[in-house]
Automatic annotation (TrEMBL):
Source species, domain of life: Bacteria
Cofactor note as given: Binds 1 FAD per subunit.
Cofactor(s) demanded: FAD
Pfam family, one: FAD_binding_7
GO MF annotations, alphabetized: deoxyribodipyrimidine photo-lyase activity; DNA binding; FAD binding
Keyword Phosphoprotein annotated: no
Residues that coordinate or bind FAD: 40, 88, 91-98, 192-194
Organism lineage string: Bacteria, Pseudomonadati, Pseudomonadota, Alphaproteobacteria, Sphingomonadales
Domain named Cryptochrome/DNA photolyase FAD-binding: residues: 88-215
Name by which UniProt lists this protein: Deoxyribodipyrimidine photolyase
PANTHER family: CRYPTOCHROME, CRYPTOCHROME CIRCADIAN CLOCK 5 ISOFORM X1
Length: 406
């Protein structure tokens, strides 16, 4: 059985609320800045519902695609609030942490993929299981907050972080559904859907990230934090942690594919990194063209973000661009523009990396190589993301100083 498809309305309202162009993201950052300090620390967990998530930045869709970078956002909030922005800065580092952790354990993504295959077979064979899953996906569980959050996610592509935690906890511990199916339900719908943050947050709630430490949703707390909007009944009072083998030991993250300065280049823009034109390390690059794959823009938010990224790259390098329907077409475009290599943002574990073999093959046939640019932010943060979050948290002052942020 295939994944239950998002309803057509998904993400329709998301664009205004969750910026997916650089300009809109910078405007949002400006607007959010006054409250990024102690106000954020005090109020970030308040959950007021769709259209009223004013206590949080709603920058995740932009950060996820690097329409704005972590470094830029952290620099702005530090300049405005100094150490009073510590809570917000720490949250931004959760993104870096999850990315680095998954880079060091790509098997966790691969085994999630395998589990989904197995669970889809079960959904096809076990009617009771399929009915429980369907009721959850349709928001027909009778648990008021959960059913409401399904509606909100379908309509906007977003849920507040705190709501995501309650949702995932109810999915796993109250409804007794596998975390893997819940992670897919989110990834298919979130406007900020991210392989690392999503998969690992679901594992964290289920008690698989910090072994034995699960997150159990509590009815009274939900009523309090939502201003009395919900009073869920029948929530699990015990967290039965799924019986799974421990995560593998951390390995060294994959090194970026090499590229050469001075070689004519076509930029392949993906939703991994859509502000490469601002990277000082690429300042002297001889860019002959900018290309995107049409398939990368299948989701409306990605299409808008890619269009925005292309516009800025073309304005920066004054070169032609092409929307390509296949890796072969992209290779032919690069060859036609006289390029010797194609450069792209570092492909992290997840769908981005899964697209690589096909692109490498097509480029090789055209006599071209593929290179990746990994940001210094990731190079510095990821080595500290191999254990629990606190090992990275301790390094935050050094990491932001190394990024030139005061
Ligand atoms: C079950 C579950 C699934 C999630 N799936 C995703 C996902 O697919 N993509 C995604 O980007 N985030 C995911 N998150 C993390 C978090 O919920 C969102 O990043 C956050 O809600 C985005 O809203 P915001 O930009 O207003 O956050 P703010 O509170 O304004 O935080 C600022 C930034 O910090 C980062 N951040 C904040 N909290 C977290 C966190 N817990 N983990 C990682 N980064 C964080 C984000 O980049 C965010 O934009 C998930 C969390 C849970 C519990």
């Amino acid at each position: 059985m295939a994944s239950i498809a998002p309803r057509p309305a998904a993400q329709a309202q998301g664009f205004a609320e969750h910026p997916v162009t650089r300009e809109a993201a910078l405007l949002r950052l400006d607007a959010f800045l006054p409250q990024a300090g102690l106000v954020y620390a005090a109020r970030r967990n308040e959950e007021h519902g769709a259209g009223r998530h004013h206590a949080v930045s709603r920058l995740s869709a932009a950060l996820r695609r690097r329409l704005v970078s972590e470094a830029e956002v952290v620099a702005r909030v530090r300049a405005a609030h100094g150490e009073s922005a510590d809570k917000f800065v720490t949250e931004v580092f959760w993104r870096s942490y999850f990315k680095g952790w998954l880079e060091a354990r790509p098997q966790v993504w691969a085994s999630w993929r395998g589990d989904l295959h197995r669970l889809d077979l079960r959904l096809g064979e076990d009617d009771g299981f399929a009915a429980r899953h369907l009721a959850a996906c349709r928001g027909e569980t009778g648990i008021d907050c959960f059913d409401h959050w399904v509606e909100e996610l379908e309509a906007t592509g977003y849920l507040h972080n705190w709501a995501r935690m309650q949702f995932a906890s109810i999915w796993v511990f109250t409804l007794g559904l596998p975390w893997q199916l819940g992670a897919r339900f989110f990834l298919d719908r979130l406007i900020d859907g991210d392989a690392a943050s999503n998969t690992l947050s679901w594992r964290w709630v289920a008690g698989l990230h910090t072994r034995g430490k699960a997150y159990l949703a509590d009815a009274d707390r939900i009523a309090r934090m939502t201003g009395g909007r919900f009073s869920p009944r029948g929530l699990a009072t015990v967290a039965r942690i799924p019986d799974e083998p421990p995560a593998p030991a951390a390995a060294l993250p994959r090194a970026p594919l090499r590229w050469q300065a001075g070689v004519a280049t076509v930029l392949w823009l993906t939703t991994e990194d859509l502000s490469l034109e601002l990277e000082a390390a690429l300042g002297d690059l001889d860019v002959r063209g900018v290309a995107v794959l049409a398939s990368d823009g299948a989701v409306p938010a990605d299409k808008t973000a890619l269009g925005d990224g292309v516009q800025r790259a073309v304005a920066r390098w004054h070169c032609p661009f092409r929307v390509c329907s296949s890796a072969e077409e992209l290779a032919a475009f690069a060859h036609g523009e006289g390029a010797g290599q194609v450069l792209t943002g570092f492909a992290t574990v997840g769908p981005a990396l899964e697209a690589f073999p096909e692109m490498k093959r097509a480029l090789r046939h055209a006599g071209l190589t593929l290179g990746e640019h990994r940001r210094a932010w990731d190079d510095r943060a990821w080595p500290h993301a191999t254990k629990g979050f606190f090992a990275l948290k301790e390094k935050i002052p050094q990491l932001i100083a190394a990024a030139g942020i005061r």
